[in-house]
What we know:
Layout: E1 9-13, E2 17-22, E3 29-36, E4 43-47, E5 55-57, E6 63-65, E7 71-74, E8 77-79, H1 83-91, E9 97-101, H2 114-123, E10 125-131, E11 135-136, E12 141-145, E13 150-155, E14 160-167, E15 175-180, H3 186-189, E16 196-198, H4 199-207, E17 220-222, H5 229-239, H6 262-275, E18 282-289, H7 293-310, H8 329-335, E19 347-351, E20 355-361, H9 381-399, E21 405-417, E22 426-433, E23 441-450, E24 453-466
Parallel strand pairs: 4-9, 11-18, 14-18, 16-17
Antiparallel strand pairs: 1-10, 2-3, 3-9, 4-5, 6-7, 7-8, 12-13, 13-18, 14-15, 19-20, 20-22, 21-24, 22-23, 23-24
Amino acid sequence: MENSFNPDKQHTLKQAVSISGTGLHTGVLADLTLKPANAGFGIQFQRVDLPNKPMIKADCDLVTDTSRGTTLEANGAKVSTVEHLLAALVGMGIDNVLLEINGPEVPIIDGSAMPFIEIIEEAGIEEQDAAKLWYSIDENLYLTDEEKRVEMVIMPAREYQITTLIDFNSPVLGTQHAELKTMRNFKDKISTSRTFCFLHELEMLLQHNLIKGGDVNNAIVVVDQPIGDEELGRLKKIFNKDDIEVKSEGYLNNLELRFPNEPARHKLLDIVGDLALIGYPVKGRVIANRPGHSTNVQFARMIKKHIKANKHLKGVPNYDPNVPPVYDLQYIEKTLPHRFPFLLVDKIIELTDERIVGVKNVTFNEWFFQGHFPQNPVMPGVLQIEALAQCGGILAINLAGEGKYDTYFLKIDNCKFKQMVRPGDTMILKMELSAPIRRGICEMRGTVYIGNKVATEADLVAQIVKQ
């Protein structure tokens, strides 16, 4: 990513770009074309070789196989080994792209994400006029698989960070770890790391007619057991190479390592690709011990479930009563014509050119509790809307410029009351512009929060009138 890259905006490609290659397991040659897509489109595959050209969203709920890579399936179509391509898209900050492919498997190329990054750079990256809504993890989420000895956790952090640790009980690999502190370093530190396998796995895969597209150029082969001349001879035939040998480090001489811990870095690459299937950009620190595609996808599903269950909390303003307000009650009385008992905003704690957040402390002594369900005090819903309107009036007047103004509300739509407001509650009043102010007409979306729960929400339209 360039220094000018804005991570809080959505991005797509400037133009279409293609790459061709063989699938690692199927051995099928496929053409892959990456095309620009509108904001909010996300990442979607399209099998252009099949009738009706079915679409497959990059979604962890659509994963059907993780045995030797990650496979997505929907609408009667599959696409496999998607993780390296997805990692490249995340690493380059691409949010919206259509991936047209005319085969069942993404080309393996050299076994890393770098070939896909190269074509993304060739196409160019375009910033879109849409905000990228990050989900910040606010509590530790754990996944443990005792049988596979896998442990994964995501913790609160300001950026998306990943640490991987691998231990295959192999004298060759030993214990390795890799770390990515910021996604801006993905290209240089992680993307070139290639997939790897053990020699005994390679033989098993060949016996089961898998890795039809495997060759000496797209996988590091780890040899952690002694092999004889007969086996070396068989490997020469498999790889069609005359000088197959085992290096002193315990690797087949097909590839030179790009990093001493290249296997650990590739496991990190796989996590980036598999967690792209969450469907939400997240901020959090992932620590993964002995990860694999199966547990990566399980973890993605866990995180997605947590986000869906808590997504409504994303917009909850943070209220700390110890922090001085932006505007106190004296300023509010100078701005609004309302007075006790009809002034329903106590202070303003946040104010920008697009949003305002106010506070109303609801006490048992409020005048309306005397006659509104006096045996079971509940704040009237219309007064909650009035409190929002007053808060929105301060925002509108603040944006109106020099002079004295009043605001008169013209319309209320989509009003919903979701939770009762009772004595002792603190109402957090949030008003956000839904559209730019035109000819004195101000459209806003209002929400009342009690704690972390939405009590009331509505769309309001007001007119700004000069006194």
